[in-house]
Amino acid sequence: MAEPWHLYYQIKAAVYSKLGFRKKQLFKLLDARFNVDVYKQKPAAKKRVCIVGAGPVGLRAAVELALLGSHMSVLEKRTKFSRENMLHLWPWVVQDMASLGAKILFTKFCMSRTYFHVSTRQLQLVLLKVALLVGVELHTATDFKAIVPPQLSPVSGISPYTIKVKPKISELEFTAVLGASGTNNALAEPVGIERFVFCQKESLGVVCYCGVGKRRRRRRRCRRRCRFLD
């Protein structure tokens, strides 16, 4: 099987000459990331990793592991990204996303120097595009059911993790399985991992769709951010 990062260079060779100046900057940014010493060494090569959950955390982790050389699979039970709640990003997160081409893929990404807010959906879309470019496989409408721990064999050593999903996917054995599905993480409970809330303040993004006029089909999106304290 070809290494996953080979897909990136194949895509670049096929489309680069046809792109405008701005779109070419995306490949220049990713080239710079691939040329960082730790990524050039590919320490995770020949590893197969599965991430359960295609939220911002799951997709960003998939991009990082793919850059490190791992064969990545991401499982997502939803069929589309529809979470419009607004996220406040730390400055270092904005910088990291910009280095992956976020401002090229989404020109309005955190335009203000002090107001670093973006919807979960938009963040997912940006990360998904980067993930697909670097060879990550995304399986939508795929529900994670269970994981079978590896078995120690005196002959072959430690076997890989086996996952059970519905519907089945082509690859079911992995070196590691990571849970990134939020509070519904099916990986934590079976092994007795308890969850803790580190911050008592929770923010909720409320999205209102208001009709502009009787004869207009377009809708104006009004976002209202509400903060609730325990």
Automatic annotation (TrEMBL):
Gene3D superfamilies xref list: FAD/NAD(P)-binding domain
Designated name of the protein: FAD-binding domain-containing protein
InterPro entries the record matches: FAD-bd, FAD/NAD-bd_sf
FAD-binding domain residues: 48-83
One GO MF term attached to the UniProt entry: FAD binding
